[in-house]
Structure formats: C-alpha cells, structure tokens
UniProtKB/TrEMBL annotation:
Residues covered by the FAD dependent oxidoreductase domain: 12-403
Pfam families: DAO
Keyword Mitochondrion: no
InterPro entries with a match to the protein in the record: FAD-dep_OxRdtase, FAD/NAD-bd_sf
Official protein name in the record: FAD dependent oxidoreductase domain-containing protein
Amino acid sequence: MAANEVSNLKADVLIVGAGVIGLACAYELSRAGAKVVVIDKFEPGYGCSYGNAGWITPCFAMPLPMPGMLLKSFKWLLDPESPLYIKPELNPTLISWLLSFMASMTQKKMLSSVDALTQISVQSLKLYQELAAKTDKSFSFEQKGLLMVAQSHDGLKYARQEMELVSRNGIPGKLMMEDETRAFEPSLTKRIKGSVFFSQEAHAEPLQVTQTLAHEAQKLGAVILPKTEVIDFQLSPKGIASARTTRGIFEADQFVLATGAWSHHLGQTLKLKIPVLGGKGYAIITDPLEVNPQRPMMLVEKKVAVTPRNGTLRLAGTLELVNQDETFTTRRVEAIVRGAREFMNVPETIRYHEIWRGLRPCTPDGVPVIGRTARYPNLLLATGHQMLGLQSATGTGKLIADLALGKTPDIDPKPFRADRF
Ligand SMILES: Cc1cc2nc3c(=O)[nH]c(=O)nc-3n(C[C@H](O)[C@H](O)[C@H](O)COP(=O)(O)OP(=O)(O)OC[C@H]3O[C@@H](n4cnc5c(N)ncnc54)[C@H](O)[C@@H]3O)c2cc1C
C-alpha cells in the first residue's frame, strides 16, 4: 500500500508491533468493536514470536529474577554452555537494568510476581481454549500437559518446589519417581531421578498462533500492514498525535507499543525509559526421535524445552542477556542438543531442519509492562513478556482492550503498571 493511502487508515487504536502480543491486542480490541491498525517493520509473527517452544503453561509462571539466582548467575558466567549468560558490557542501560534485576531477587517480590504471572497465564489459557474451539484448532493447540524431568536430587527438589509454589494458585501437579516417570514417558531412556507432571498445560505452533490471531482480527475489520517501521512520533496536547513511519504518517486516538525487544529503543524516541533488554534464546527443529516424546518436557538441569511436533521435534533453550545482539553462538546451540541427549536417545547424526534464535523482551523484575503511560495519556505499553509471551498473550490482549476502552479489567492491572520503573 502506498504511503499516500495511509491517511484513509485513521484508527481508533494503532498498534506498533505484530508479534503475538500486538496481534492478541488487535484481536481483543477488534472483538470489542474498535477500529484497529497494526503495523510491523517485518512480516507479522517473525520476531521473537516466530520459533518459541510453543508452551502455554501457567505452571511456568516464573519471573526471571528468583531468590538465590545471583550466586548461580556468577557460576554460570564462567561456563560457556550455561543456560543463562550475561554479556559483560560497560553500558549504563545494562548496568541500571542489572541493578534493578538484582533488587527483584527477593522472596516477597518473587511471590507477588508469580501470582500476577499465573493470573494472566490462566486467563490466557482459557482464551486460547475458546480460540481453538472457534477456529477448529487452526494453531495446533493441544492440551497434553507438561512434564518437568529431573536427573538429580537437586533437580527434583527444584521441580517439587515449583509444584508447591504454583499449587498456591490452583495449578495441580503430580510428583512421580523414576519408574513411574519412565512408564509414563518412554522417550526418557537415560538416567532419571523423577518428575513432576502438570496435567492442564497446553502447547501450540507459535507461527500458527500469530497467523490465527491476525486472521481473526482481520475478519473483524483490523488492518495489518507489514514492512512499515515506526521511526518516531508526533505529539499533540492530548499525548501522541501520530506515528511517523517508513510508509507515511499514521494518526490514531490511542497507540499501543507492542514492540518486544525493540521497545527500549522506540521508547527513547518518546523520552520514555522502558527497561526491556533482549534475552536471546535458540530453538532447533530436528528429525523425530526413534521413540519421540509424547508430550512437552522441561529437562530441569539443562533448562531445555522439548516440544513434539507433527513429524519433527523442537528443542529450545538458553537465555543470553545480550540486548540487540542477534548473532548465533554455535556452541550454545549444540549445548541444547547435547543437553537433550543426556535424557533421551538423540542420535549424533540427527538432522536439523531449522535453527532459529529470538530475542525475548526481558524486564528487570520479570513482569511484563501492560498499561497506560503517565507521560502520554493515549499511549499504552504491552511489552516485556520475557519467557512467557505466548502463554500470556491473549490475557495481555484482553487487559489492553479493557484499559483502552475504559472497561473494568478481569485481572488486577496493578502488578503490570507501565510507570512502575
Ligand atoms: C527460545 C525461546 C523459547 C520460548 N518459548 C516460549 C514458550 O514456550 N512459551 C512462551 O510463552 N514464550 C516463549 N518464549 C518467549 C516468547 O517468544 C516472547 O515472550 C514473545 O514472542 C514476545 O512477543 P512480542 O510480541 O512481545 O515480541 P515479538 O514477537 O518480537 O514482536 C515484536 C514486533 O515488533 C516489531 N517492531 C519492533 N520495532 C518496530 C518498529 N520501530 N516499527 C514497527 N514494528 C516494530 C518487530 O518487527 C516484531 O515483529 C520463548 C522465547 C525464546 C527465544
């Protein structure tokens, strides 16, 4: 579409970013009757939302900063294959992010974050169930549960603690020892101590999720424009008047920034401090195993996520706090496959169909930023969803729609406030 056609597209709400978050906002706003335009600098769904593990698992409603993590992170810094890596840099943004991250590693903060993340994840799962029923599971939605498998005493203790933590919010889990675990999941052929099974968890194909949300939003009148990059914004006494893009000026009554790991950069054009740092992770799609897993699994000690797909297998993992560095570190990619090999029979010659990396948008307190900004009354933020963006997207979309349209939200919006930093 040519730039001079843009003036016809004045929206009630302009959403910047067509990842799973922006598209879930578009869907919910359109359902509520708003005229929505979504713009993205790439094709919709090809940012971090493209190749993630596909888990919709409220049992993993954990913030990134956890008590006791500081010591562990220092240990991991010395290990080039560790699941967490922080790129050392004398950069004021990174230093201030890390200080805020460390300040969030308290028991009290962790418990309140778990409560907020569980709430939005449970609501999201419900909305995904409705969407799956409506679209005949067009996004490969399956509810087969999630198995957390441990090889060591400490690993099993960790899985058990997680089970106890989320059971406070009504998420059931079942502890199984070695024999029961093996009978339950025959792909686990190597040394196992035990597992915890969360029966209500779901998974889906991430690109199909964004495509379904886009399609459903478009059916309700939303306009989605790819290859349209926001450069900056023009202001008015009301807040933001328009977004200046590579394809013209877009006006709207309200604006939603759903720009994932790019949010800090775009926020700077508005003199907003959005403390979102890119946390790189990798996913590898391989041939299926001879005995392919029957359900998604978290391999606790290696922090590797295993997701069975139709005819292939996805292995995902690592979190490198690197901000905008999108380079591949082959050693870390291989460490994911080696980690899986310690639990299952993964042949040395296994064929890779795809290697992908994505930048998770990470806030220092591990809770997304969802809400209206104090500085610009007509600007809402929907970003910083760290490792949980897919599983909390539909709840985020609903919350943004409620806030934008002046309705009372279904969940408490306070923990997600945009002006808390
Ligand atoms: C290896 C890995 C595994 C993961 N597994 C899971 C999982 O199993 N479950 C789960 O819930 N989460 C998972 N995640 C996290 C999840 O992928 C993210 O939280 C989620 O994709 C974030 O979505 P988003 O829409 O905020 O960001 P993105 O998908 O990155 O979308 C942001 C969009 O904004 C656009 N944009 C940026 N700047 C501009 C601009 N100036 N103008 C126009 N457009 C712009 C970008 O092009 C992009 O499309 C995983 C992540 C990784 C890396």
